[in-house]
């Protein structure tokens, strides 16, 4: 009868995708090492589900499968776990087993160490055996246990690599869809702006002409940003451009794009960023725009006129950039978990990309930097980033942008 524990084990095994697949070279290497360390010619990695024992990598014989009832490892892989048996004929657990009696094989010496997943689920063993009686020294027995842990590490690495690839594929699909969805209305907006700009009535309306020129410039920047973000997503988010980027120039563009939103909320933003960092100007712009928009949003939600300070200070490894606000702040217990959020939450009424702090962290880490949150002297939150500098340089002039 299949138990709940069997179902849990089966699901855990399925995540590793090794049953029925060709042996992995890394797993075969660990099996050979186990045989060498233990001084035997045969070793195997057994994966045990509710019905069968699957030999996924072996040395000394061709891996196959057998029923769980015939398996020696199925007797011990859950409890007591690590086992060393000098002569299986003298052990009540194995004396009648077909691998011992000669019905299948003539095993005498047997040792195994369980494969335990990080979730604590036993899924099989790393097993060594021989047709001659034998034993393991304490050091060799400990080495077998270590190698069993290494087997699980290899399986986990395979699983996480597949998950990462799936995540990157989803990111590319999402970015392509967002790119398509944004480009259609953007093309319409740009077309209407061009029609309006060509209107003869604007000859007597210089203010409207200037506003349309700004709108056209913003639409052009948005098109470029969409293209750059799509390319970044297609690369898996791992390879941003590397060039010297003056933060004051990036922030000029950010403030231009946030101008209307800042005016609506009566927000003030003070900027002191005499820094040139090494990175991707588009991604850094998205990062700073998101952080400033969030700071304004949460400050306004707390009922105070939003005030935000963006500063940059030189450190030995580059620059420390901070975005501080006078909002409600973030509780210490939540300062790590907020970086796991992938949606906008209640930020739909705030202009900006709404890409979430998780993507902010991804951008910073892709640049070789760090990001975190602490209290701000302004009373709210201080999001700090450490980014690499662009080399020796003279300080840039401080520019007040808003």
- Based on secondary structure, the structural category is alpha+beta
User: Strand share of the residues?
Assistant: 15-25%
* End-to-end C-alpha gap: 71 Å
Query: What overall form do the CA principal axes indicate?
Result: elongated
The parts where pLDDT drops under 50 for at least 5 residues are 341-354, 392-402
Main-sheet strand order equals 3-2-1-6-5-4
- The ordered string of helix (H) and strand (E) elements is HHEEEHEHEEHHEHEEHEEHEE
The proportion of residues forming helix, as a percent range, comes to 40-55%
**Total strand segments:** 13
Instruction: Give the helix tally.
Output: 9
Instruction: Give me the CATH fold name of the largest domain.
Output: Heat Shock Protein 90
CATH architecture annotation name of the largest domain: 2-Layer Sandwich
Tell me the name of the CATH class of the largest domain. Alpha Beta
CATH homology-level superfamily of the largest domain: Histidine kinase-like ATPase, C-terminal domain
Keywords: Kinase, Phosphoprotein, Transferase, Two-component regulatory system
Catalytic activity: ATP + protein L-histidine = ADP + protein N-phospho-L-histidine
Protein name: Sensor-like histidine kinase SenX3
Domain Histidine kinase: 177-391
């Amino acid at each position: 009868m299949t138990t709940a524990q069997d179902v849990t084990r089966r699901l855990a095994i399925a995540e590793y995708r090794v049953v029925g697949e060709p042996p992995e070279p890394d797993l075969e290497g660990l099996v050979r090492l186990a045989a060498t360390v233990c001084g035997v010619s045969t070793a195997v990695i057994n994966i045990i589900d509710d019905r069968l024992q699957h030999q996924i990598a072996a040395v000394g014989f061709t891996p196959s499968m057998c029923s769980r009832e015939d398996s020696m490892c199925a007797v011990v892989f859950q409890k007591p776990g690590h086992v060393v048996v000098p002569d299986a004929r003298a052990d009540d657990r194995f004396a009648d087993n077909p691998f011992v009696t000669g019905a299948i094989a003539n095993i005498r010496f047997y040792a195994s160490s369980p494969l335990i997943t990080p979730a604590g689920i036993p899924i099989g063993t790393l097993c060594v055996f021989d047709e001659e009686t034998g034993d393991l020294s304490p050091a060799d027995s400990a080495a077998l246990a270590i190698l069993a842990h290494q087997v699980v590490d290899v399986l986990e690495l395979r699983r996480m690599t597949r998950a990462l690839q799936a995540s990157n594929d989803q990111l590319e699909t999402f970015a392509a869809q967002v790119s398509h969805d944004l480009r259609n209305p953007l093309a319409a907006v740009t077309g209407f702006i061009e029609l309006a700009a060509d209107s003869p009535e604007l000859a007597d309306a210089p203010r409207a002409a200037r506003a349309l020129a700004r709108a056209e410039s913003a639409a052009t920047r948005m098109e470029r940003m969409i293209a750059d973000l799509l390319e970044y997503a297609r690369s898996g988010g791992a390879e941003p451009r590397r060039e010297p980027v003056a933060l004051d120039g990036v922030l000029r563009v950010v403030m231009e794009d946030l101008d209307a939103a800042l005016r609506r909320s009566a927000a003030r933003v003070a900027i002191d960023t005499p820094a040139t960092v090494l990175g991707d100007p588009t991604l850094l712009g998205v990062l700073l725009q998101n952080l400033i928009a969030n700071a304004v949003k949460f400050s306004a939600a707390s009922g105070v006129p939003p005030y935000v300070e963006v500063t940059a200070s030189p450190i030995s490894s580059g620059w420390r950039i901070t975005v501080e606000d006078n909002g409600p702040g973030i509780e210490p217990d939540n300062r790590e978990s907020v970086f796991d959020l992938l949606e906008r939450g209640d930020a739909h009424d705030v202009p900006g990309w709404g890409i979430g702090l998780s993507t902010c962290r991804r951008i910073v880490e892709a640049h070789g930097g760090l990001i975190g949150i602490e209290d701000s002297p302004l009373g709210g939150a201080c999001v700090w980033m450490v980014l690499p500098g662009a080399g020796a340089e003279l300080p840039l002039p401080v520019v007040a942008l808003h």
